[in-house]
NIPSNAP domain-containing protein
Amino acid sequence: MPTRFSKILIAAILMVTVCSLPSSAMADVFELRTYTTNEGKLDDLNARFRDHTVALFKKHGIESVGYWVPLDQAKSKNTLIYVIKHKSREAAKESWKAFIADPEWKKAAKASEQNGKILAKAPESVYMNATDYNPKFENADQGTDGVYELRTYRCNKDKLKGLDSRFRDHTMKLFKKHGIENVAYWHPADEPASQDTLIYIIRHESRDAAKESWDAFRNDPEWQKVAKESQKDGDFLRERPESVYMKATDYSAIK
């Protein structure tokens, strides 16, 4: 029978153990996943997520953040992009293990593929950590006409901190000024991408509004000044940013 002293000692040891864990072990971890379907199978994939997968994710401790289909004509017919959140990287591993082994999931997966395999290849997955300037996105009263944009920036060596500073101190405010809504900003969790990559999502009222906002942003004297001053010691980006315009699915938490 444990004594009162031993109970206190055990509690103290547990507290020290938890506090000694690296912050990455305890922080929420996001996962960006991209699914490419076989021809004509995107509707089946969306139905499976809508009717089964999202609920099963919740059952196994996986939080759904947002689900989108690209607006590009080709990818709009075979691609699903989504972001989910885990309590930690270890929790992600355990949740996926439990999800895959769930009899309800196995039944739903089998039933959804009676007329052919849905996915054309294995899903792409990127684990991500939120930046320290990640905003609190308000989803209320957004309407259904909004267009989301997933952007990926890859930096030259040792330039990611400078890019982060520019977003934190200037870019996000200028986005808001020109009608671009900041949704989320992440860094990949794994090296080498964690050292040189920024992934973020923004929201526009429409595709036309996106074009107008980007034109106004690029022509803003304040932005031009900031961009010039921040890159006195060299360009931040080693390649052109990747941009994917997207529409939220009807079952997405983010609309």
Summary: The chain has two domains: 25-127, 131-248. The CA atoms of residues 129 and 186 lie 5 Å apart.
